[in-house]
Design a protein that fits this description.
600 residues, 6-stranded mixed sheet, 22 strands, Rossmann fold, alpha/beta, 21 helices
Length: 600
């Protein structure tokens, strides 16, 4: 098929307040072509495509379809020019079936011309030009005509099946959205656009929530659409997938066009340099776990959501010191609830979370043990002295016990076992447990948007001041260190966090939790919104924590990163553990099978 130019964007610019989302961006699209729109988060990819899809209107520039200048002011206009967009966040009605979601919002398949002709014919037979029934027979015929103006769902289902057979989709038109997997929902969104007759299809981060097997099926469908003459634009930042599926690649950086290259003429290294403006090493150096001691133990954990539904079902695992345990799973399979339950944010319905404090042969302190507790533990034979002899505190004056504790002369025989079920984050901290947590919701749970960076640092340390006075110096020093080391883009540490970009908010949060010197560090999607350089800075920071003996639980969506960074990977499917595997001995397809609940 001869390649013809079907779309041209010329010098498109768009600003939101003082933020310039796109600046004089131009691109071409040919029929039967797969064009990847590549760039880091915040580079202007989605904004540019939202202009093409009629969601935004450009401040300047022009759009040409098949050589003719057009004005697209709404999604309806976009469909008129056979342009459709599948957004990253699906726009479906959960209680409707697939076919009902496809036809919703469309005018009747029994089109306006046929409807008008039918009404005219009925009116002429009954000599009634106003269309108001003046007899029983006329009312019956008008009712029949009105029914014909509605959708024939059976006919629509047949058309959906034809689309599926043509391009290789698998979808039951009668299935309700609430019963669908993420992959099925995405399939439905694509079919919605094809049903409306689009020739130009835009896919926004289509692989973000899919398993490798589902990605492979999606790519096969996209190739079939290409063979049928459809033109596809894929918004992404995943370099491996770009090199697998694209014909050409357009790269944006900070809202500006860097260039367009043929896939056959480029490499991952060149694309990376185009994205970030400099050469970047894309290697994660994974060291062997250093310790064998257990830090955290989760036993038969069950968690219910606000509706009383079980979202975590009998999950069990352990975390060792100096280890990175990855958590893999399709989005919404319990990752969020699992971390929140361990952190004390989410109530635990059943099971245990046990923290093993590494205290063997280490002195007890008054930081987390009272005089009464120390006496009780001594009677239970928990302590020994500097010479290895058992410690008995019977008939020992309190003053003498305090002196021995402060001098570090009372030591533990074994590691401490501490049960965290039912304890909130403050109570966990007061036990002296350094458990740090970077949640998925940065500003909802992690930071206070109306506070500046210094003040957000103080949330971790304000109780450590002397008496009623706050210690301002340490939070300020911590904030400045994070800004410098993680290259946070901000005029100063006095800027409100909510005024920072998403990536810089993430840097502040991750930096603060690492500065807390945790023994257990839980992170959910810590590089979401970060550029490649910053992402690898975070990976290196995590590896340094690992080398210091910190146990790390890492929830990620990029399986390539999980396989390169983690030592072991726990896979969740529908809130259950479908496998715990050695990251060095498994591949992406096997991991994807576990994510779908299949056995290896």
């Amino acid at each position: 098929m001869k390649k013809e130019l079907v779309l041209q964007l010329k010098n498109i610019s768009k600003t939101f307040g003082k933020v310039k989302a796109n600046s004089n961006v131009s691109l071409d699209l040919y029929n039967g072509e797969i064009l990847s729109l590549l760039g880091e988060n915040g580079s202007g990819k989605t904004s540019l495509m939202n202009i093409l899809a009629g969601i935004y209107f450009p401040d300047s520039g022009s759009i040409e379809i098949n050589g003719e200048s057009v004005s697209i002011t709404s999604p309806k206009d976009a469909y008129k020019y056979k342009i459709g967009m599948v957004h990253q966040h699906f726009k479906l009605v959960d209680t409707f079936t697939a076919v009902e979601n496809v036809v919703i919002g469309l005018d009747s398949r029994f089109n306006k011309e046929k409807r008008k002709a039918l009404y005219t014919e009925i009116e002429s037979r009954y000599d009634n030009p106003l269309g108001c029934a003046n007899s029983y027979d006329e009312e019956v015929e008008l009712k029949k005509a009105r029914k014909l103006t509605g959708f024939d769902l059976k006919e629509a289902s047949n058309e959906i099946n034809n689309i599926c057979n043509t391009f290789g989709f698998v979808l039951d038109p009668k299935k309700h959205v609430c019963d669908m997997s993420v992959s099925e929902k995405q399939t439905l969104e694509i079919i919605k656009t094809l049903y409306r007759g689009v020739d130009i299809l835009i896919l926004d981060e289509p692989t973000a929530v899919l398993t490798p097997q589902e990605i492979e099926k999606l790519f096969n469908v996209i190739r079939n659409m290409k063979l049928a003459g459809k033109s596809i634009i894929i918004i992404t930042h995943k370099l491996n997938e770009v090199m697998e599926i694209s014909d050409r690649i357009t790269v944006l950086r900070k809202g500006e066009l860097v260039g367009t290259v043929n896939k056959t003429d480029t490499s991952i290294e060149q694309l990376t340099e185009m994205m970030v403006g400099q050469k970047t090493e894309l290697n994660i150096e994974r060291s062997e776990p250093k310790g064998a001691e257990k830090l955290l133990e989760v036993k038969d954990l069950c968690v219910k959501n606000v509706f009383g539904n079980e979202v975590i079902n009998n999950v069990s695992f352990d975390l060792k010191e100096g280890e990175i345990l990855g958590i893999a799973g399709i989005s919404g399979n319990g990752q969020k609830e699992l971390l929140e339950a361990i952190a004390g944010v989410q109530p635990i319905a059943n099971g245990e979370v046990i923290y093993h404090r590494q205290k063997k042969n280490k002195p007890v302190s008054f930081f987390h043990k009272s005089l009464k507790q120390i006496k009780r533990l001594a009677n239970e034979g928990v302590f020994h002295d500097l010479n290895g002899k058992p410690v008995s505190l019977e008939n020992v004056p309190n003053k003498e016990i305090k002196t021995q504790v402060k001098a570090g002369e009372i030591l533990f025989n074994e590691n401490e076992t501490m049960y965290l079920k039912g304890k909130n984050p403050r109570e966990i901290r007061e036990l002296g447990i350094h458990l740090a947590f970077v949640p998925e919701d940065r500003l909802g749970m992690g930071l206070v948007g109306t506070m500046n960076i210094n003040e957000n640092m103080m949330l971790r340390s304000y109780r450590k001041g002397k008496g009623p006075f706050l210690n301002f110096k340490r939070p300020r020093d911590t904030a400045q260190s994070i800004i410098t080391k993680l290259e946070v883009a901000t005029p100063s540490a006095n800027v409100q966090v909510k005024k920072l970009s998403g990536g810089n908010v993430q840097k502040v949060l991750v930096g603060r939790e690492i500065a807390y010197a945790p023994s257990v560090f839980m992170v959910a999607y810590p590089v979401r919104g970060l550029d490649i350089n910053s992402s690898y800075t975070i990976y290196n920071l995590l590896n340094k924590q690992k080398e210091n003996g910190v146990g790390i639980i890492y929830v990620g969506e990029d399986l390539d990163v999980l396989l390169a960074l983690a030592d072991r990977i726990l896979v969740l499917c529908n809130g259950k553990v479908s496998g715990i595997v050695d990251a060095r001995k498994i591949n992406k397809k096997q991991l994807g099978a576990l994510m779908l609940g299949e056995s290896l």
